[in-house]
Amino acid sequence: MPKIRRLHTLLEHIEGGRYRLGPHVAQHMLQEGFLERDVLTALRWGRELAVYPEDARMLVLGYMVFGGRVKLPLHVVLEYAKPRWVDIVTAFIPERPHRVYSRARLAALLRFDGGREAVEWAGDTKDRPPREAAG
Predict the structure, then answer these.
(1) How do 70-79 and 57-66 pair as beta strands?
(2) Mind listing the pLDDT tens digit for each residue in 60-80?
(3) For residue 111, what pLDDT is reported?
(4) Helix 23-32 to helix 36-44 angle, to the nearest 10 degrees?
(5) Whole-angstrom distance, CA of residue 114 vs CA of residue 102
(6) Fewest CB atoms within 10 A around its CB: which of 18, 67, 96, 117?
């Protein structure tokens, strides 16, 4: 059984500068307008939403704080496979911050190739939305 790590032990590595921001984090930073310090603040004051020990990953819900009064939720995915190192795999502003994602949904969120999941219409074909609205 893979070892389960806790957020407070991973923070020791992050505070010590033993972390790497992955390319997916940088992509979301550019698209959504947050900074590396926002990710680090979210981790520092965040909580574990889900731990995936078989993947050595963790989903954290934290908050970006602006001016001490405004807080915006931020999801951060950490990978802790290396003993004294943490990879920050991705960070994104969630639509529903307290929702725990299934493993399949988390995998879709973390896709690096920009691909989309295949979607099939399950209802009656006469109720199908127009092609451009279904995507």
Answers:
(1) antiparallel
(2) 999 998 887 888 899 999 999
(3) 55
(4) 100
(5) 19
(6) 67
